[in-house]
Amino acid sequence: MRIQLAQQSEADELLGRSPLALLVGMLLDQQIPMEWAFTGPHTISQRLGHDLTAAEIASYDPEAFAALLAEKPAVHRYPKSMAARVQQLAAYLVEHYDGQPEKLWADAADGKELLKRLMALPGYGKQKAQIFLALLGKQLGVQPSGWREAAGAYGEEGSHRSVADVVDAESLVRVRAAKQEAKRAAKAE
Q: Could you tell me which residues come within 8 angstroms of residue 22 by beta carbon, excluding any fewer than 6 positions away?
């Protein structure tokens, strides 16, 4: 299945071939529109002149990396703090997975273990980890036993709750509508 989270062909193509780009996009997916967040890895790679590597990002001068993310158009609403988070994520991947993000899920015994590994990533809380686990299962075929249960409601088949369910422009509209409804329901309580 083709990734369509950025809703831009070149950015989505990078997300589909680079597990690091996908992890970084998910990390950036807060307080900005989803498409902007998932276009971020492509913008960073264009500015670097090549695909992202965890080792390069982890060893990049922090001020220079923050400036890279802050260039217009900025990669995120908060480029400096998100640059630090991206570098923390990259450093963690270098330290624990030899800079190869796919090792996170390659040998996970089950969904519970994979969720635990995702939650250990800098910038990934339980909800973000569950959404990413659902994305892996639904769109990339990474389906260790119990993955749907570990992903919680985000793993439900046929749901439209998160980026894990965005496969085209129509599903993006459905996910946005579901999120709006959830916000309305939360305010009503």
A: 3, 15, 41, 101, 135
**Which of helix, strand or coil describes residue 7?**
coil
| Positions in the chain whose pLDDT score sits under 50 | none
CA angle centred on 111, ends 110 and 116, rounded to 5°: 105
- Give the pair of three-digit tokens for residue 73: 């158009």
Beta strands in 93-167 (DSSP E): none
pTM, 2 dp = 0.94
Residues in the chain: 189
The reported pLDDT for the residue numbered 71 is: 96
Q: What is the pLDDT of residue 184?
A: 85
Per-residue burial over 135-151, b = 16 or more CB atoms within 10 Å of its CB, e = otherwise: bbbbbeebbbebbbebb
- CA pair distance 81, 189, nearest whole angstrom: 33
Record: fold of 1-104 = Endonuclease III; domain 1 (1.10.340)
pLDDT of residue 181: 85
So what's the pLDDT on residue 1?
Answer: 57
Query: Looking at residue 180, what is its pLDDT?
Result: 86
| Cα radius of gyration rounded to whole Å, the chain | 16
Give dist(CA 114, CA 104) in Å, integer: 7
Kindly list the domain boundaries of the chain, sorted by start residue: 1-104, 109-188
